[in-house]
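#struct-queue
[09:14] JT: dropping the first one here, sequence first, then the structure tokens:
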Amino acid sequence: MAENNLVVLNQELMQKTLAEESLVLVDFWAPWCGPCMALGPVIEQLAQDYAGKATVCKLNVDEAKEAASAFKIRSIPAVILFKDGAEVSRIIGLRTLKTYTDALDALLV
């Protein structure tokens, strides 16, 4: 795991993480994407706030094109929430911290 409990994924680690963790948030991003860079601190805050409750991850779509294609990522930033390995929610574009906390909290119930 990276600092602040944030997991940086690659293709193989993504499959393993989805198989092993019950609640996973994955931020699909790229370094050239302005909104993605603006979302970065929000994702880091979520990793810190949800440590022990959810696994918060980042996946660079340029470095993991197969994963981006498999999850039909057409626009970034794209945040997908997985519960027990299945996609349960998708948030496209830059949103507020509350949007992500509300989505996570709904799945923690």
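[09:21] JT: and here's the second one, same format:
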Amino acid sequence: MATRPLTIRFLFLAILVFSVVAVHCAAKKKPPLKTVNLNTATSEELQKVPGIGPATAEKILQMRKSYGAFKSVDDLLAIRGIGKKRLDKMRKYLTVGKPGTPKNMPPSAKPAPAAHKPPDKP
């Protein structure tokens, strides 16, 4: 009779451990396929980056709104909760670009600046 409560406890413990491991594995998100531009990304796009959750994404958007476009990925160090180690893990998924530049456009495909044309003479 004493083995039955022990078996139930062991079974309960095994289920508990399995559920914790399953939740932990499911919580890991897949990194984005393309780099995320800090100057154009939405909250949802930012949250695809490992290390950025809803709260951090909102802090990034608020910083962009308050201070303007990011000049460097390192600008994220000004956000409370993002330190050097955390930023180093996120860096390869992030980029900065001009706010009007389409995301992930290679430099060779970007439109050339318009040539200055003198006004027509009447």
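[09:30] RK: nice, looked through the second one.
[09:31] RK: The radius of gyration is 24 Å.
[09:31] JT: good to know. The first helix runs from residue 3 to 27.
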